[in-house]
Amino acid sequence: MSAGHIFDSYAHRITLNYKCRTIAVLGGGFNHVYPKQNQTLSHQIAKDGLVITEYPPHVHPRRYHFPERNRIISGLSFGTLVVEANEKSGTMITVDQALDQGREVYAVPGTPYIKQTVGCHRLIQAGAKLVINAADIIEDWHQFGKYIKPVDY
User: Fold this and answer.
1) Angle at 141 between CA 138 and CA 143, to 5 degrees
2) pLDDT of residue 153
3) pLDDT (tens digit per residue) in 11-62
4) Residue ranges per domain, the chain?
5) Angle at which helices 3-17 and 39-48 pack, to 10 degrees?
6) How does DSSP classify residue 79?
7) Domain at 66-153: CATH architecture
């Protein structure tokens, strides 16, 4: 399992732990959750959030499905926060999709001594908002929130 999948799973678990809603976008059909050990997590998300896919239920996940599905993830989001990214990575593909969709892009700077921060530094150089703490995003969210109607669950 890649580090991205580990972080995705962790984020979903934390969100559910705090009784909040989360959305999972699958890279294959509903009958083939990837990685397989996330089957139970997928059921929990479906119960308390939303699980979606653009693939028919019988379709197995393929490597190229994940960059495709990331356009849906960025489209569902107000903005994309990049904590670590190699200069050429799936994360940077998602950032390009977010920008194409007119979404905000945020980046957390890191040490220049590891390659996983180069993508963040390039994004900041190109105009992504540098994030030091959550307030940097919340400030924009409040501005953005003026233009959307609250949803009554």
Assistant:
1) 115
2) 46
3) 999 999 999 999 999 999 999 999 999 999 999 999 999 999 999 999 999 9
4) 1-62, 66-153
5) 40
6) E
7) 3-Layer(aba) Sandwich (3.40)
Q: Band of the pLDDT at 144, cuts 50, 70, 90?
A: confident
What is the distance, to the nearest Å, from the Cα of residue 54 to the centroid of all Cα atoms in its chain?
A: 16
Q: How far is CA 80 from CA 95, 97, 102, in A?
A: 7, 10, 11
- Residue 146's SS3 state is coil
Query: Could you tell me what percentage of the chain is helix, strand and coil, using 3-state DSSP and rounding each to the nearest 5?
Result: 50, 10, 40
Q: How far is CA 48 from CA 35, 99, 130, in A?
A: 20, 30, 32
In this structure, which amino acid lies at residue 44? Q
Entry field: residues in the chain: 153
Hey, what are 108's tokens?
A: 């957390």
Structure tokens at 113: 């001594």
Residues 31 and 62: their CA atoms lie apart, in Å, by 14
